[in-house]
Automatic annotation (TrEMBL), chain A:
Molecular-function annotations in GO: nucleotidyltransferase activity; sulfurtransferase activity; tRNA binding
Keyword set includes Cytoplasm: yes
Primary role: Plays a central role in 2-thiolation of mcm(5)S(2)U at tRNA wobble positions of tRNA(Lys), tRNA(Glu) and tRNA(Gln). May act by forming a heterodimer with NCS6/CTU1 that ligates sulfur from thiocarboxylated URM1 onto the uridine of tRNAs at wobble position.
PANTHER family for the chain: CYTOPLASMIC TRNA 2-THIOLATION PROTEIN 2
Phylogenetic classification of the source organism: Eukaryota, Metazoa, Ecdysozoa, Arthropoda, Hexapoda
Source organism: Aphis gossypii (Cotton aphid)
Keyword tRNA processing tagged: yes
Localization of this protein: Cytoplasm
Swiss-Prot/TrEMBL keywords: Cytoplasm, tRNA processing
One of the GO BP terms on file: protein urmylation
Protein family according to the UniProt entry: Belongs to the CTU2/NCS2 family.
Protein's recorded name: Cytoplasmic tRNA 2-thiolation protein 2
Pfam families registered for this protein in UniProt: CTU2
Domain of life: Eukaryota
UniProtKB/TrEMBL annotation, chain B:
Any GO BP annotation: tRNA thio-modification
Cross-link (Glycyl lysine isopeptide (Gly-Lys) (interchain with K-? in acceptor proteins)): 103
Cellular component, GO annotation: cytosol
Protein name, entry field: Ubiquitin-related modifier 1 homolog
Taxonomic placement: Eukaryota, Metazoa, Ecdysozoa, Arthropoda, Hexapoda
PANTHER family per UniProt: RURM1 PROTEIN
Xref: Pfam families: Urm1 (PF09138)
The record's account of how the chain is modified after translation: C-terminal thiocarboxylation occurs in 2 steps, it is first acyl-adenylated (-COAMP) via the hesA/moeB/thiF part of the MOCS3/UBA4 homolog, then thiocarboxylated (-COSH) via the rhodanese domain of the MOCS3/UBA4 homolog.
Stated role: Acts as a sulfur carrier required for 2-thiolation of mcm(5)S(2)U at tRNA wobble positions of cytosolic tRNA(Lys), tRNA(Glu) and tRNA(Gln). Serves as sulfur donor in tRNA 2-thiolation reaction by being thiocarboxylated (-COSH) at its C-terminus by the MOCS3/UBA4 homolog. The sulfur is then transferred to tRNA to form 2-thiolation of mcm(5)S(2)U. Also acts as a ubiquitin-like protein (UBL) that is covalently conjugated via an isopeptide bond to lysine residues of target proteins.
Entry's localization field: Cytoplasm
List of residues that carry 1-thioglycine: 103
HAMAP family: Urm1 (MF_03048)
Family: Belongs to the URM1 family.
Main localization of the protein described in the UniProt heading: cytoplasm
Protein backbone atom coordinates (compact mmCIF):
# COMPACT_ATOMS: atom_id res chain seq x y z
CA UNK A 1 0.00 0.00 0.00
CA UNK A 2 1.37 3.33 -0.99
CA UNK A 3 1.29 6.03 1.62
CA UNK A 4 1.07 9.52 0.31
CA UNK A 5 2.94 12.06 2.32
CA UNK A 6 0.46 14.83 1.78
CA UNK A 7 -2.42 12.89 3.15
CA UNK A 8 -0.82 11.65 6.27
CA UNK A 9 -2.48 13.13 9.26
CA UNK A 10 -0.84 12.61 12.55
CA UNK A 11 -3.03 12.23 15.50
CA UNK A 12 -1.02 12.46 18.60
CA UNK A 13 -2.28 9.92 21.00
CA UNK A 14 0.36 9.95 23.55
CA UNK A 15 -0.84 6.93 25.42
CA UNK A 16 -1.85 4.79 22.53
CA UNK A 17 0.70 2.84 20.57
CA UNK A 18 -1.07 3.03 17.28
CA UNK A 19 -0.72 5.87 14.91
CA UNK A 20 -3.51 6.78 12.61
CA UNK A 21 -2.91 7.71 9.04
CA UNK A 22 -5.19 8.45 6.17
CA UNK A 23 -4.39 6.78 2.92
CA UNK A 24 -5.15 7.85 -0.59
CA UNK A 25 -8.67 6.51 -0.73
CA UNK A 26 -9.50 8.35 2.43
CA UNK A 27 -9.78 5.22 4.51
CA UNK A 28 -8.23 5.27 7.92
CA UNK A 29 -5.77 2.56 8.71
CA UNK A 30 -3.85 1.96 11.84
CA UNK A 31 -0.15 1.64 11.62
CA UNK A 32 0.56 -0.88 14.31
CA UNK A 33 3.84 -1.51 15.95
CA UNK A 34 5.57 -4.09 13.85
CA UNK A 35 7.75 -6.69 15.35
CA UNK A 36 11.33 -5.78 14.81
CA UNK A 37 12.57 -7.58 11.77
CA UNK A 38 16.18 -8.60 11.62
CA UNK A 39 18.09 -5.90 9.81
CA UNK A 40 20.04 -6.39 6.65
CA UNK A 41 23.67 -6.22 7.52
CA UNK A 42 24.92 -5.03 4.17
CA UNK A 43 24.76 -1.46 2.96
CA UNK A 44 21.68 -0.96 0.83
CA UNK A 45 23.59 1.10 -1.67
CA UNK A 46 26.76 -0.76 -2.50
CA UNK A 47 25.57 -4.16 -1.20
CA UNK A 48 29.16 -5.05 -0.47
CA UNK A 49 30.28 -3.32 2.68
CA UNK A 50 28.92 -4.04 6.11
CA UNK A 51 26.53 -1.40 7.30
CA UNK A 52 27.45 1.24 9.85
CA UNK A 53 24.34 3.32 10.24
CA UNK A 54 20.66 2.51 10.37
CA UNK A 55 18.28 5.26 9.37
CA UNK A 56 14.60 5.13 10.22
CA UNK A 57 15.18 1.67 11.64
CA UNK A 58 15.37 0.04 8.22
CA UNK A 59 17.84 1.68 5.88
CA UNK A 60 21.38 0.44 6.38
CA UNK A 61 24.33 2.36 5.04
CA UNK A 62 28.06 1.79 5.18
CA UNK A 63 30.52 4.53 6.01
CA UNK A 64 31.67 5.08 2.45
CA UNK A 65 28.17 5.43 1.06
CA UNK A 66 26.75 7.38 3.98
CA UNK A 67 28.90 10.49 3.86
CA UNK A 68 28.34 11.21 0.15
CA UNK A 69 24.62 10.58 0.68
CA UNK A 70 24.45 13.22 3.41
CA UNK A 71 26.56 15.68 1.45
CA UNK A 72 24.36 15.13 -1.55
CA UNK A 73 21.23 15.88 0.43
CA UNK A 74 22.80 19.08 1.69
CA UNK A 75 23.87 20.15 -1.79
CA UNK A 76 20.48 19.29 -3.22
CA UNK A 77 18.69 21.45 -0.64
CA UNK A 78 21.05 24.29 -1.30
CA UNK A 79 20.89 23.87 -5.06
CA UNK A 80 17.14 23.64 -5.14
CA UNK A 81 16.83 26.99 -3.47
CA UNK A 82 18.79 28.69 -6.30
CA UNK A 83 19.24 31.51 -3.89
CA UNK A 84 22.95 31.88 -3.63
CA UNK A 85 24.66 33.58 -6.49
CA UNK A 86 28.26 33.41 -7.55
CA UNK A 87 30.54 35.42 -5.32
CA UNK A 88 27.79 36.39 -2.94
CA UNK A 89 28.74 36.99 0.67
CA UNK A 90 27.06 34.46 2.91
CA UNK A 91 27.05 34.65 6.67
CA UNK A 92 27.47 31.15 8.07
CA UNK A 93 26.29 31.01 11.67
CA UNK A 94 28.20 28.53 13.80
CA UNK A 95 27.11 27.97 17.37
CA UNK A 96 29.47 25.12 18.05
CA UNK A 97 26.79 22.45 17.95
CA UNK A 98 27.32 19.28 15.95
CA UNK A 99 24.92 20.58 13.32
CA UNK A 100 26.73 23.83 12.79
CA UNK A 101 30.17 22.27 12.88
CA UNK A 102 28.97 19.84 10.22
CA UNK A 103 27.55 22.70 8.17
CA UNK A 104 30.92 24.40 8.26
CA UNK A 105 32.63 21.20 7.22
CA UNK A 106 30.23 20.63 4.34
CA UNK A 107 30.71 24.16 3.06
CA UNK A 108 34.46 23.87 3.36
CA UNK A 109 34.40 20.53 1.51
CA UNK A 110 32.21 22.13 -1.12
CA UNK A 111 34.73 24.88 -1.66
CA UNK A 112 37.52 22.36 -2.27
CA UNK A 113 35.64 20.42 -4.94
CA UNK A 114 36.64 20.27 -8.58
CA UNK A 115 35.36 23.11 -10.72
CA UNK A 116 31.93 21.98 -11.75
CA UNK A 117 30.90 20.90 -8.28
CA UNK A 118 32.46 23.73 -6.36
CA UNK A 119 30.43 26.05 -4.21
CA UNK A 120 30.97 29.50 -5.56
CA UNK A 121 29.82 31.79 -2.82
CA UNK A 122 32.00 33.65 -0.38
CA UNK A 123 31.37 32.42 3.17
CA UNK A 124 31.87 34.60 6.23
CA UNK A 125 31.80 32.53 9.39
CA UNK A 126 30.20 34.00 12.48
CA UNK A 127 30.40 32.78 16.04
CA UNK A 128 28.37 34.63 18.65
CA UNK A 129 29.95 34.22 22.05
CA UNK A 130 27.22 33.76 24.63
CA UNK A 131 29.56 33.01 27.49
CA UNK A 132 28.04 35.88 29.44
CA UNK A 133 24.84 33.91 29.88
CA UNK A 134 26.21 30.42 30.30
CA UNK A 135 29.28 28.88 31.82
CA UNK A 136 31.62 27.83 29.11
CA UNK A 137 35.11 26.46 29.54
CA UNK A 138 37.66 29.29 29.35
CA UNK A 139 39.43 27.95 26.33
CA UNK A 140 36.26 27.58 24.28
CA UNK A 141 36.74 30.83 22.39
CA UNK A 142 40.34 29.98 21.53
CA UNK A 143 39.37 26.52 20.39
CA UNK A 144 36.67 27.90 18.14
CA UNK A 145 39.12 30.39 16.66
CA UNK A 146 41.60 27.58 16.14
CA UNK A 147 38.98 25.60 14.26
CA UNK A 148 38.10 28.55 12.04
CA UNK A 149 41.79 29.20 11.35
CA UNK A 150 42.15 25.61 10.24
CA UNK A 151 39.45 26.03 7.64
CA UNK A 152 41.03 29.25 6.47
CA UNK A 153 37.76 31.08 5.95
CA UNK A 154 37.00 34.65 6.92
CA UNK A 155 35.58 34.61 10.40
CA UNK A 156 34.28 36.86 13.15
CA UNK A 157 33.85 36.08 16.81
CA UNK A 158 31.43 38.52 18.39
CA UNK A 159 30.23 38.87 21.95
CA UNK A 160 26.49 38.46 22.19
CA UNK A 161 25.94 41.64 24.19
CA UNK A 162 28.02 43.68 21.77
CA UNK A 163 26.06 42.32 18.83
CA UNK A 164 22.77 43.24 20.43
CA UNK A 165 23.52 46.71 21.76
CA UNK A 166 26.60 48.19 20.22
CA UNK A 167 26.93 50.05 16.94
CA UNK A 168 30.48 48.92 16.78
CA UNK A 169 29.74 45.23 17.19
CA UNK A 170 32.92 43.76 15.83
CA UNK A 171 35.36 45.30 18.24
CA UNK A 172 33.44 46.79 21.07
CA UNK A 173 35.56 46.93 24.19
CA UNK A 174 34.73 50.10 26.03
CA UNK A 175 31.16 49.46 27.04
CA UNK A 176 31.11 45.71 26.92
CA UNK A 177 30.58 45.29 30.66
CA UNK A 178 27.69 47.68 30.60
CA UNK A 179 26.10 45.82 27.71
CA UNK A 180 26.67 42.50 29.41
CA UNK A 181 24.79 43.75 32.43
CA UNK A 182 21.91 44.90 30.27
CA UNK A 183 21.65 41.52 28.68
CA UNK A 184 21.78 39.75 32.00
CA UNK A 185 19.08 42.07 33.31
CA UNK A 186 16.71 41.06 30.59
CA UNK A 187 17.11 37.38 31.26
CA UNK A 188 17.09 37.75 35.01
CA UNK A 189 13.77 39.53 34.98
CA UNK A 190 12.21 36.74 32.97
CA UNK A 191 11.50 34.02 35.47
CA UNK A 192 9.76 31.65 33.12
CA UNK A 193 12.02 29.25 31.25
CA UNK A 194 9.74 29.13 28.24
CA UNK A 195 9.89 32.89 27.83
CA UNK A 196 13.60 33.01 28.53
CA UNK A 197 14.36 30.60 25.77
CA UNK A 198 11.95 32.31 23.42
CA UNK A 199 13.57 35.67 24.11
CA UNK A 200 17.02 34.22 23.58
CA UNK A 201 15.94 32.92 20.18
CA UNK A 202 14.56 36.29 19.18
CA UNK A 203 17.56 38.24 20.39
CA UNK A 204 19.89 35.82 18.61
CA UNK A 205 17.97 36.34 15.42
CA UNK A 206 18.09 40.08 15.93
CA UNK A 207 21.84 39.96 16.50
CA UNK A 208 22.47 37.79 13.45
CA UNK A 209 20.41 40.03 11.19
CA UNK A 210 22.21 43.09 12.46
CA UNK A 211 25.62 41.55 11.94
CA UNK A 212 24.73 40.34 8.48
CA UNK A 213 23.91 43.88 7.45
CA UNK A 214 27.08 45.16 9.03
CA UNK A 215 29.24 42.58 7.31
CA UNK A 216 27.52 43.26 4.00
CA UNK A 217 26.23 39.73 3.68
CA UNK A 218 23.03 39.19 1.74
CA UNK A 219 22.46 35.59 2.72
CA UNK A 220 22.47 33.94 6.13
CA UNK A 221 22.93 30.23 6.63
CA UNK A 222 21.90 28.53 9.82
CA UNK A 223 22.32 24.89 10.68
CA UNK A 224 18.98 23.78 12.08
CA UNK A 225 18.20 20.18 11.23
CA UNK A 226 14.89 18.49 10.56
CA UNK A 227 14.58 17.35 14.12
CA UNK A 228 15.08 20.73 15.65
CA UNK A 229 12.74 22.40 13.21
CA UNK A 230 9.94 19.93 13.92
CA UNK A 231 10.26 20.59 17.60
CA UNK A 232 10.29 24.28 16.93
CA UNK A 233 7.20 23.98 14.78
CA UNK A 234 5.17 22.32 17.51
CA UNK A 235 6.41 24.54 20.30
CA UNK A 236 5.79 27.63 18.18
CA UNK A 237 2.18 26.66 17.83
CA UNK A 238 1.96 26.18 21.57
CA UNK A 239 3.55 29.56 22.19
CA UNK A 240 1.11 31.37 19.96
CA UNK A 241 3.53 31.88 17.11
CA UNK A 242 1.52 29.85 14.66
CA UNK A 243 1.34 32.60 12.10
CA UNK A 244 5.11 32.87 12.05
CA UNK A 245 5.75 29.20 11.42
CA UNK A 246 7.04 29.62 7.92
CA UNK A 247 9.51 32.26 9.08
CA UNK A 248 10.92 29.96 11.67
CA UNK A 249 11.20 26.71 9.80
CA UNK A 250 11.18 27.56 6.09
CA UNK A 251 14.03 26.83 3.73
CA UNK A 252 14.48 30.40 2.72
CA UNK A 253 13.06 33.34 4.49
CA UNK A 254 13.11 36.68 2.89
CA UNK A 255 12.89 39.88 4.79
CA UNK A 256 10.16 42.05 3.46
CA UNK A 257 11.64 43.89 0.51
CA UNK A 258 11.81 41.44 -2.30
CA UNK A 259 14.68 42.88 -4.28
CA UNK A 260 18.23 41.75 -4.82
CA UNK A 261 19.61 43.35 -1.72
CA UNK A 262 17.18 41.74 0.67
CA UNK A 263 18.45 39.50 3.39
CA UNK A 264 17.56 35.84 3.02
CA UNK A 265 17.97 33.22 5.70
CA UNK A 266 18.70 29.78 4.30
CA UNK A 267 18.55 26.53 6.23
CA UNK A 268 20.48 24.07 4.09
CA UNK A 269 20.49 21.32 6.72
CA UNK A 270 16.74 21.18 7.05
CA UNK A 271 16.38 17.90 5.19
CA UNK A 272 18.91 16.10 7.32
CA UNK A 273 17.92 14.25 10.46
CA UNK A 274 19.72 14.64 13.74
CA UNK A 275 21.07 11.14 13.39
CA UNK A 276 22.46 11.74 9.94
CA UNK A 277 24.30 14.77 11.21
CA UNK A 278 25.62 13.00 14.28
CA UNK A 279 27.10 10.24 12.15
CA UNK A 280 28.42 12.67 9.58
CA UNK A 281 30.30 14.40 12.37
CA UNK A 282 31.46 11.10 13.81
CA UNK A 283 32.78 9.77 10.51
CA UNK A 284 34.57 13.02 9.77
CA UNK A 285 35.96 13.29 13.29
CA UNK A 286 34.37 16.67 13.84
CA UNK A 287 34.52 18.00 17.36
CA UNK A 288 31.68 20.00 18.75
CA UNK A 289 31.71 22.72 21.41
CA UNK A 290 29.57 23.62 24.34
CA UNK A 291 26.50 25.43 23.14
CA UNK A 292 24.22 25.72 26.12
CA UNK A 293 20.96 27.52 26.27
CA UNK A 294 18.59 28.08 29.13
CA UNK A 295 17.04 24.69 28.69
CA UNK A 296 20.26 22.73 28.95
CA UNK A 297 20.02 20.14 31.67
CA UNK A 298 16.67 21.39 32.92
CA UNK A 299 13.75 19.20 33.78
CA UNK A 300 11.44 18.32 30.93
CA UNK A 301 8.38 19.74 32.61
CA UNK A 302 9.66 23.24 33.11
CA UNK A 303 9.26 24.66 29.66
CA UNK A 304 7.07 24.22 26.64
CA UNK A 305 10.03 23.71 24.36
CA UNK A 306 11.49 20.89 26.42
CA UNK A 307 8.14 19.17 26.86
CA UNK A 308 7.62 19.27 23.12
CA UNK A 309 11.08 17.86 22.60
CA UNK A 310 10.42 14.94 24.88
CA UNK A 311 7.10 14.31 23.20
CA UNK A 312 8.68 14.19 19.75
CA UNK A 313 11.63 12.10 20.87
CA UNK A 314 9.49 9.58 22.70
CA UNK A 315 7.29 9.12 19.66
CA UNK A 316 10.31 8.90 17.41
CA UNK A 317 11.59 5.83 19.24
CA UNK A 318 8.66 3.70 18.15
CA UNK A 319 7.68 5.54 15.01
CA UNK A 320 10.78 6.52 13.08
CA UNK A 321 8.84 8.65 10.63
CA UNK A 322 7.44 11.00 13.27
CA UNK A 323 9.87 13.82 12.71
CA UNK A 324 9.65 13.81 8.95
CA UNK A 325 5.87 13.69 9.06
CA UNK A 326 5.65 16.69 11.36
CA UNK A 327 8.19 18.46 9.26
CA UNK A 328 6.55 17.82 5.90
CA UNK A 329 3.23 18.94 7.31
CA UNK A 330 4.75 22.12 8.64
CA UNK A 331 6.33 22.82 5.30
CA UNK A 332 2.94 23.21 3.72
CA UNK A 333 1.97 26.04 5.98
CA UNK A 334 2.68 29.21 4.14
CA UNK A 335 2.92 32.77 5.18
CA UNK A 336 0.09 35.18 4.75
CA UNK A 337 0.92 37.31 1.77
CA UNK A 338 -1.13 40.28 2.78
CA UNK A 339 0.64 40.96 6.03
CA UNK A 340 0.51 44.61 6.94
CA UNK A 341 2.28 44.81 10.22
CA UNK A 342 5.24 43.11 11.74
CA UNK A 343 6.16 42.57 15.35
CA UNK A 344 8.77 44.99 16.64
CA UNK A 345 10.66 42.35 18.53
CA UNK A 346 10.59 39.22 16.43
CA UNK A 347 9.77 40.72 13.02
CA UNK A 348 7.05 38.13 12.70
CA UNK A 349 3.73 38.69 11.05
CA UNK A 350 1.09 40.10 13.32
CA UNK A 351 -2.51 39.13 13.34
CA UNK A 352 -4.33 42.37 12.90
CA UNK A 353 -7.93 43.03 11.98
CA UNK A 354 -8.93 39.52 12.79
CA UNK A 355 -12.50 38.43 12.57
CA UNK A 356 -14.36 38.36 15.87
CA UNK A 357 -14.38 34.59 15.84
CA UNK A 358 -10.61 34.21 15.70
CA UNK A 359 -8.62 32.61 18.46
CA UNK A 360 -6.85 35.90 19.03
CA UNK A 361 -10.05 37.77 19.81
CA UNK A 362 -11.29 34.90 21.93
CA UNK A 363 -8.18 35.09 24.09
CA UNK A 364 -8.61 38.82 24.48
CA UNK A 365 -12.23 38.41 25.41
CA UNK A 366 -11.54 35.70 27.92
CA UNK A 367 -8.95 37.89 29.60
CA UNK A 368 -11.36 40.78 29.66
CA UNK A 369 -14.16 38.74 31.19
CA UNK A 370 -11.88 37.43 33.91
CA UNK A 371 -10.79 40.95 34.71
CA UNK A 372 -14.19 42.59 34.67
CA UNK A 373 -16.45 39.93 36.08
CA UNK A 374 -20.14 40.76 35.86
CA UNK A 375 -19.45 44.17 34.42
CA UNK A 376 -18.36 42.44 31.25
CA UNK A 377 -21.94 41.90 30.30
CA UNK A 378 -22.75 45.57 30.41
CA UNK A 379 -19.80 46.94 28.55
CA UNK A 380 -18.41 45.84 25.26
CA UNK A 381 -14.71 45.39 24.72
CA UNK A 382 -14.33 48.79 23.10
CA UNK A 383 -15.94 50.65 25.95
CA UNK A 384 -13.51 49.09 28.33
CA UNK A 385 -10.60 50.33 26.34
CA UNK A 386 -11.95 53.86 26.50
CA UNK A 387 -12.52 53.64 30.19
CA UNK A 388 -9.04 52.38 30.74
CA UNK A 389 -7.70 55.24 28.72
CA UNK A 390 -9.61 57.72 30.84
CA UNK A 391 -8.24 56.29 34.00
CA UNK A 392 -4.76 56.49 32.67
CA UNK A 393 -4.95 60.20 31.94
CA UNK A 394 -4.23 60.99 35.55
CA UNK A 395 -1.10 62.88 36.36
CA UNK A 396 1.93 61.36 37.90
CA UNK A 397 5.08 59.86 36.59
CA UNK A 398 4.37 56.28 37.52
CA UNK A 399 1.70 55.92 34.91
CA UNK A 400 4.00 57.14 32.23
CA UNK A 401 6.32 54.20 32.44
CA UNK A 402 3.44 51.79 32.47
CA UNK A 403 2.11 53.61 29.45
CA UNK A 404 5.25 53.08 27.45
CA UNK A 405 5.02 49.38 28.11
CA UNK A 406 1.46 49.27 26.97
CA UNK A 407 2.25 51.29 23.88
CA UNK A 408 5.03 48.95 22.93
CA UNK A 409 2.83 45.95 23.49
CA UNK A 410 0.53 47.25 20.78
CA UNK A 411 3.36 46.84 18.34
CA UNK A 412 4.13 43.28 19.31
CA UNK A 413 2.75 39.94 18.32
CA UNK A 414 0.84 37.78 20.76
CA UNK A 415 3.80 35.69 21.88
CA UNK A 416 6.15 38.64 22.29
CA UNK A 417 3.72 40.53 24.50
CA UNK A 418 4.19 37.78 27.06
CA UNK A 419 7.92 38.37 27.06
CA UNK A 420 7.63 42.13 27.41
CA UNK A 421 5.00 41.96 30.11
CA UNK A 422 7.45 40.05 32.23
CA UNK A 423 10.28 42.49 31.77
CA UNK A 424 10.87 44.90 34.58
CA UNK A 425 12.16 47.69 32.47
CA UNK A 426 12.19 48.37 28.79
CA UNK A 427 15.50 50.18 28.94
CA UNK A 428 17.38 46.96 28.45
CA UNK A 429 15.91 46.31 25.05
CA UNK A 430 18.11 47.09 22.05
CA UNK A 431 17.71 50.74 21.17
CA UNK A 432 16.74 49.99 17.57
CA UNK A 433 13.58 48.39 18.79
CA UNK A 434 12.80 51.31 21.06
CA UNK A 435 13.41 53.85 18.35
CA UNK A 436 11.26 51.91 15.93
CA UNK A 437 8.52 52.02 18.52
CA UNK A 438 8.88 55.80 18.83
CA UNK A 439 8.68 56.10 15.07
CA UNK A 440 5.56 54.02 15.03
CA UNK A 441 3.98 56.15 17.74
CA UNK A 442 4.78 59.38 15.96
CA UNK A 443 3.33 58.01 12.80
CA UNK A 444 0.20 57.02 14.64
CA UNK A 445 -0.09 60.46 16.20
CA UNK A 446 0.35 62.12 12.87
CA UNK A 447 -2.30 59.94 11.36
CA UNK A 448 -4.59 60.90 14.20
CA UNK A 449 -3.98 64.59 13.63
CA UNK A 450 -4.62 64.60 9.93
CA UNK A 451 -7.46 62.14 10.15
CA UNK A 452 -10.08 64.84 9.75
CA UNK A 453 -8.48 66.23 6.64
CA UNK A 454 -8.35 62.95 4.83
CA UNK A 455 -11.07 62.21 2.38
CA UNK B 1 44.31 -14.62 31.60
CA UNK B 2 42.43 -11.50 30.69
CA UNK B 3 41.51 -9.19 33.51
CA UNK B 4 38.48 -7.14 32.63
CA UNK B 5 38.03 -5.09 29.53
CA UNK B 6 39.69 -1.88 28.56
CA UNK B 7 37.40 0.37 26.53
CA UNK B 8 36.98 4.01 25.58
CA UNK B 9 33.73 5.82 26.13
CA UNK B 10 33.03 9.13 24.49
CA UNK B 11 30.32 11.64 25.31
CA UNK B 12 29.72 14.43 22.83
CA UNK B 13 27.32 17.13 21.79
CA UNK B 14 26.50 18.39 25.24
CA UNK B 15 26.51 15.06 27.07
CA UNK B 16 29.98 15.78 28.42
CA UNK B 17 28.55 18.25 30.93
CA UNK B 18 27.25 15.27 32.84
CA UNK B 19 30.72 13.79 32.92
CA UNK B 20 32.93 16.53 34.27
CA UNK B 21 33.19 18.21 30.86
CA UNK B 22 35.52 15.48 29.68
CA UNK B 23 34.58 13.90 26.41
CA UNK B 24 36.85 10.87 26.32
CA UNK B 25 37.05 8.45 29.19
CA UNK B 26 39.37 5.47 29.08
CA UNK B 27 37.90 2.93 31.43
CA UNK B 28 38.74 -0.50 32.66
CA UNK B 29 35.75 -2.71 33.26
CA UNK B 30 36.28 -5.15 36.11
CA UNK B 31 36.10 -8.86 35.52
CA UNK B 32 32.69 -10.38 36.06
CA UNK B 33 31.13 -13.77 35.70
CA UNK B 34 28.60 -12.59 33.17
CA UNK B 35 29.90 -11.17 29.93
CA UNK B 36 29.71 -7.36 29.69
CA UNK B 37 26.84 -6.15 27.57
CA UNK B 38 25.94 -2.63 26.61
CA UNK B 39 22.97 -2.77 28.93
CA UNK B 40 25.23 -3.56 31.87
CA UNK B 41 27.70 -0.90 30.79
CA UNK B 42 25.01 1.79 30.94
CA UNK B 43 24.41 1.03 34.60
CA UNK B 44 28.13 0.87 35.23
CA UNK B 45 28.52 4.34 33.65
CA UNK B 46 25.70 5.62 35.79
CA UNK B 47 27.34 4.32 38.95
CA UNK B 48 30.93 5.13 38.15
CA UNK B 49 31.27 7.96 35.65
CA UNK B 50 28.22 10.14 36.11
CA UNK B 51 29.15 13.08 38.30
CA UNK B 52 25.77 14.34 39.39
CA UNK B 53 23.55 11.40 40.20
CA UNK B 54 20.46 13.62 40.28
CA UNK B 55 20.88 14.29 36.62
CA UNK B 56 20.78 10.61 35.77
CA UNK B 57 17.51 11.00 33.88
CA UNK B 58 19.27 13.27 31.42
CA UNK B 59 21.27 10.26 30.34
CA UNK B 60 19.13 7.22 30.98
CA UNK B 61 15.49 6.35 30.92
CA UNK B 62 14.47 3.01 32.29
CA UNK B 63 17.15 0.51 31.40
CA UNK B 64 18.23 2.19 28.20
CA UNK B 65 19.51 5.60 27.10
CA UNK B 66 17.19 8.56 26.92
CA UNK B 67 15.42 8.93 23.57
CA UNK B 68 17.44 11.29 21.43
CA UNK B 69 20.81 9.92 22.40
CA UNK B 70 22.63 8.00 19.71
CA UNK B 71 25.00 5.17 20.55
CA UNK B 72 27.78 4.02 18.28
CA UNK B 73 30.30 1.27 18.86
CA UNK B 74 33.47 1.61 16.83
CA UNK B 75 31.59 3.96 14.48
CA UNK B 76 28.87 1.42 13.99
CA UNK B 77 25.24 1.96 14.88
CA UNK B 78 24.19 -0.02 17.94
CA UNK B 79 20.94 -0.90 16.24
CA UNK B 80 23.00 -3.13 13.97
CA UNK B 81 24.73 -4.80 16.86
CA UNK B 82 21.78 -5.90 18.93
CA UNK B 83 21.21 -2.78 21.04
CA UNK B 84 21.54 -3.48 24.74
CA UNK B 85 22.48 -7.09 24.15
CA UNK B 86 25.71 -6.29 22.37
CA UNK B 87 28.65 -8.02 24.00
CA UNK B 88 31.46 -5.60 24.63
CA UNK B 89 34.89 -6.55 23.39
CA UNK B 90 38.30 -5.38 24.46
CA UNK B 91 39.35 -1.97 23.05
CA UNK B 92 35.86 -1.05 21.94
CA UNK B 93 35.20 2.63 21.40
CA UNK B 94 31.69 3.48 22.50
CA UNK B 95 30.32 6.88 21.58
CA UNK B 96 27.23 8.57 22.99
CA UNK B 97 25.95 11.49 20.96
CA UNK B 98 23.13 13.68 22.17
CA UNK B 99 20.80 15.14 19.59
CA UNK B 100 18.84 17.04 22.17
CA UNK B 101 18.31 20.74 22.04
CA UNK B 102 21.21 22.55 23.61
CA UNK B 103 22.73 19.28 24.75
Amino acid sequence: MQFVDVNIVLIFYKSSVTMCSVIEEGAVVFETLNQVEPLELKCRKCLIEDGNVVLQKKYVYCKTCFVPMVTHKFRATLGKSKLVNRGERVLVCVSGSLSSVSLLHMIWTGLQQSTYKRLTFDPVVLYIDESVLHNYPHDQEDKIKELFEKYGLTYHVVKFAAAVYSDNCLNEERYIDQYNDKLKNIFNSLSDLTLKEDMLMKLRKYAITKLAELLKCTRIMTAENEHKLSIRLLSNVALGRGSQTSLDIGLAVNNKNNDKTSLVTIRPMRNLSAKEISYYALFNNLDDFMHSNFLTATSEDESIQKTTERFVNDLQVDFPSTVSTIFRTGEKISEKTSAISYCLLCQGIMDVNMSPSSAMEATKYSKYVSLMGVKALELSLKDVKNEEANQKNCTGCKCKKQDLKEEIIEGLCYACTHIIQNLESLDDLPKDILSKEKERLQFKMMEEQIKDFLL
Amino acid sequence: MEKGLSITTEFTSGLQILFNNIKKHKVLLPETEEPWTLGLLLFWIKDNLLVDKDKCDLFMKGNTVRPGIIVAINDQDWELLGDLKYKIKNNDNITFISTLHGG
